[in-house]
Write a structure and sequence with these properties.
2 domains; binds flavin mononucleotide; single chain
């Protein structure tokens, strides 16, 4: 950890099914400089789809959240941005998705499918820039597959269209989330573009944050899977940047954060939905703690939030009784 501690922004990535308002609040409270909604379909938003507005729910506790959208048709993008997004004062920024590999999205020519046509990339980006005064960013991948790696060309199209910055997830569409993210490609993009480049892929620890910046010289870092069940990574990075010792995460803090996420979720969502949606979060949060598998199974059987809170209390007592002082502060 000997590199200079230049304060480069660290962002929570858009994550479908994960980065709802509750989790974004927690990431922000732990020090994330920016957070994003999960990707929102402009086509669905055009027809005021109810589920889409649920995804876009924003709480007063959020000050750093932004919206991510996806689509293909410039006319719809323009209409939706002008009529439905520009009026939302709490989103400073619109991030456009050109990286999603999911077959359903790809088949519709959206997400990463757009990378096959840099002219289309330019045209969409120009439409966005011309339709809003908000900051515009684009998140994309290296290319569709090994034979069509074109992130530099796409990066120039985005820069020429006037986007404020780009986020590169250093994998191809074909790789989905497999294989190591190629940080050297992020560096090449950074060397080639004038607009800021944010590095994304495989940052799970403070060391990864330091290394990705050192290797790519990027202007910031976006964290996705490394924040799932571990929003504490933002606080740890902030500790490092402030020259403090990187703080450990205790099981007490983990359990308290799970409870807070339930409370934040219950404030705007139906209890049954929360109980259901929170199961995966709990699994990620407690991974690595003693008896996590048994406890997770029990959480998956609960039906009400009260049952879950009781279970969390029971788990906390179990961990307290079975761990000595040293281990307690050293769990994650
Ligand atoms: C469950 C899941 C959901 C995701 N949803 C989105 C999304 O809505 N929008 C997006 O741009 N990327 C999405 N991604 C991609 C991540 O934002 C990120 O680019 C990718 O996981 C690589 O970063 P990581 O190695 O830090 O996980 C998703 C990834 C996962 C695992």
């Amino acid at each position: 950890m000997s590199q200079s501690r230049e304060n480069k922004s660290v962002m929570l990535a858009p994550l479908a099914g994960v980065t709802d308002s509750a989790f974004r609040v927690i990431a922000e409270e732990n020090g994330a400089d920016k957070t994003f909604t999960e990707m929102v379909s402009v086509n669905a938003l055009r027809y005021d789809n109810r589920a889409t507005y649920d995804i876009m729910y924003h709480s007063d506790l959020e000050h750093k959240s932004n919206i991510q959208i996806f689509g293909r048709d410039e006319d719809i993008i323009e209409e939706v941005v002008k009529d439905k997004i520009n009026i939302l004062p709490y989103y400073d920024e619109i991030c456009f998705n050109m990286g999603c590999p999911a077959p359903k999205i790809f088949k519709n020519g959206q997400g990463s499918a757009l990378l096959s046509d840099p002219h289309k990339v330019y045209s969409i980006a120009k439409t966005l820039v011309d339709s809003t005064d908000k900051i515009v960013s684009v998140k994309y991948r290296l290319g569709i597959n090994e034979d069509s790696i074109n992130y530099i060309e796409v990066g120039h199209a985005l820069e020429d269209a006037g986007v404020d910055y780009v986020i590169l997830h250093a994998r191809t569409r074909e790789q989905f989330y497999q294989g190591k993210a190629r940080w050297d490609e992020i560096r090449k993009l950074k060397e080639d573009l004038s607009i800021p480049v944010i590095a994304n892929g495989d940052v799970y620890t403070v060391e990864d944050y330091i290394n990705i910046l050192e290797q790519t010289k990027a202007d910031g870092v976006m964290i996705a899977r490394g924040a799932m069940g571990n929003p504490f990574i933002f606080r740890q990075i902030k500790d490092y940047l402030a020259g403090r010792e990187v703080s450990r995460v205790s099981f007490r803090e983990i359990l308290a954060t799970i409870k807070r996420q339930y409370d934040l979720s219950l404030a705007y969502k139906d209890e049954r939905l929360v109980v259901n949606q929170m199961r995966k979060h709990v699994g990620w949060y407690i991974k690595g703690l003693a008896q996590a598998t048994t406890f997770r199974k029990r959480v998956n059987e609960t039906k009400t939030s009260q049952e879950i809170f009781d279970l969390l209390d029971e788990y906390e007592r179990y961990l307290e009784e079975n761990y000595d002082r040293e281990e307690r502060s050293n769990i994650k």
